[in-house]
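Design a sequence for this backbone.
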């Protein structure tokens, strides 16, 4: 694949990853307290996964480790959210 493709993927991934902060900020402002909505974790997983692909392509071990560990944390948070929703009548 071309460098243009990978650079474009990197920018798209970074944009998606950054969107999660805007989602959290808007939710917090609406609630007038600190809030982390479900969408924050979805954007975290998608953005982090795409950034991981980009990092693998660039062969950047620091970036690969950083994004890999983040995906575990984001997935775990979504697991707890799903479990809570399933258990709530």
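Sequence:
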């Amino acid at each position: 694949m071309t460098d243009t493709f990978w650079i474009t993927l990197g920018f798209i991934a970074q944009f998606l990853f950054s969107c999660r902060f805007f989602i959290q900020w808007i939710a917090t402002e609406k609630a007038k307290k600190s809030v982390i909505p479900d969408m924050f974790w979805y954007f975290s997983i998608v953005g982090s996964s795409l950034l991981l692909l980009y990092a693998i392509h660039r062969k950047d071990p620091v970036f690969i480790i950083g994004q890999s560990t983040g995906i575990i944390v984001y997935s775990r948070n979504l697991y707890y959210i799903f479990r809570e929703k399933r258990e709530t009548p």
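The radius of gyration is 15 Å.
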